[in-house]
Amino acid sequence: MTTAQQLVHAYETGLGLPPSSGADVPDPGARLAATLPVWALAAGSVAAVSAAANRVRVAHGLPARPVRLDADRVSAAFSSERLFQRDGGAPAFFAELSGFFPTADGWVRTHANYPHHRDRLLRALELPAASDAAQLTARFSALKGAEIEDAAAAAGAIAARVRTESEWADSPMGRAAAHGPLVAVDIHDAAPWRGERGMSATVERPLTGIRVLDLTRVLAGPVATRTLALLGADVLRIDPPHLPEIDWQFSDNCQGKRSTLLDLRTDLAAFEVLLDEADVLVTGYRPGALAAAGVRAGGRPGLIEASVSAWGTSGPWGGRRGFDSIVQAASGISLLEGTPDRPGVLPAQALDHGSGYLLAAAVMDALLARADDGFGRDIRVSLARTASWLLAAHDRNPGHPAATPPNPACTVTHGELVTAAPAFADYDDYRWPAPPYGSAQPFWVEATDHYHRP
């Protein structure tokens, strides 16, 4: 049976860490029920964060906390979009042109939630800008999945052919995704860090004093940085003013952070000042995108650079865009979780959430390693690598019951907003709700201000 502790063990051995004591993991029942062991991924990734936080506490002479998981809290956090409400209304998770579409030889999955991705998809298919789902369906039915996939990639749009598990495993992309540890970590060659500022850990907030630049969107990166903020870090999220953000996703994933707008094309100097004083840089851009914009992070002594990507940094798809749903489709998960008539999905965006928590754990372990040797680290997770861990499980349950909906009691309310509570049972809520988008100035705050809502 694939267990949460096996995921924790895979994470810790991949980083060369001694094994942590086992977490108290309850029986989830039908929570996150699926053919693949989603509960093991969910509980294991949350337990990995808790174990890493304990390593930070112990390193600062503080007592560790028992790692106890609450099945309702974990499954609610992994299904947070299903609990989110604003003024009593729930969001639309996917836009009209996002989803499964039949093709001439199978199925394809698209992701067009952002307006620019929608526009690129329609241009790639030579359809009018005002086209609807019916027109897209008609166009897809005349094309093969590989044609759609290649045309979308060339246009910067997002679509993937729905593959079988064996097709993915035998492909160069699938082999690259399955290679290496769950979380890849490399030591920087830059000079050792000699900064005076560092953690001022408490049991409740072991990352107090740590500064994190968050250049991520949907969904794994924001989950990681939201977790670091929960544990005390000053997280400053930076968004480009020229690209729109999906309001409800920002509200669901920016709790405890500050938010600013900065155009790296014109304000690179301001960003460089922030980066000079940061401990951690978390990015969700495709490999090489920040360097192309002029950002040079690698030469900064002691900087922890953490990145999340869809497909990893190697292999033929290293430069492609992707999201959780797209990785599920390409890797064979959608066919495993579907019916003979239609591909399906995992009961939550588990690749995103699981990868996000693993990234947060690795950031904490990298900070501890820096405190010992002074060197920064490069940390990399990918949704496809997390998917390969799920697909490697031998125990599967194709006859599983329907997944239990997330427990609405596992929410917090702030005025018009209802969001899922943190996955960690020790924390009732994040330090503050998501601030207004772009409301902060691009400056760091003093450590004594970390606990004040922006």
Structural summary, described in words:
With 454 residues, this protein is an alpha/beta fold. It contains 16 helices and 13 strands. It has a seven-stranded mixed beta sheet. Strand 12 and strand 13 form a beta hairpin. Helix 1 crosses helix 2, helix 4 packs across helix 6 and helix 9 crosses helix 15. The C terminus is likely disordered. Pfam families: CoA_transf_3 (PF02515). This is CoA transferase family III. GO terms for molecular function: transferase activity.
Give the number of DSSP strands: 13
User: In angstroms, what is the radius of gyration?
Assistant: 21 Å
Helix content: 25-40%
Uncertain stretches: 448-453
Biggest β-sheet: strands ordered side by side in the sheet: 5-11-10-9-6-7-8
Q: What is the CA–CA distance across the termini?
A: 45 Å
| Residue share in β-strands | 5-15%
Instruction: Provide the domain count.
Output: 2
CATH architecture of the largest domain: 3-Layer(aba) Sandwich
Mean model confidence by pLDDT:
93
Largest sheet, strands/sense/barrel: 7 strands, mixed
Q: In CATH, what is the class of the largest domain?
A: Alpha Beta
Order of helices and strands: HHHEEEHHHEHHEEHEHEHEHEHHHEHEE
CATH homology-level superfamily of the largest domain: Crotonobetainyl-coa:carnitine coa-transferase, domain 1
- From the 3D structure, determine the CATH topology of the largest domain: Rossmann fold
Number of helices: 16
- Protein structure class: alpha/beta
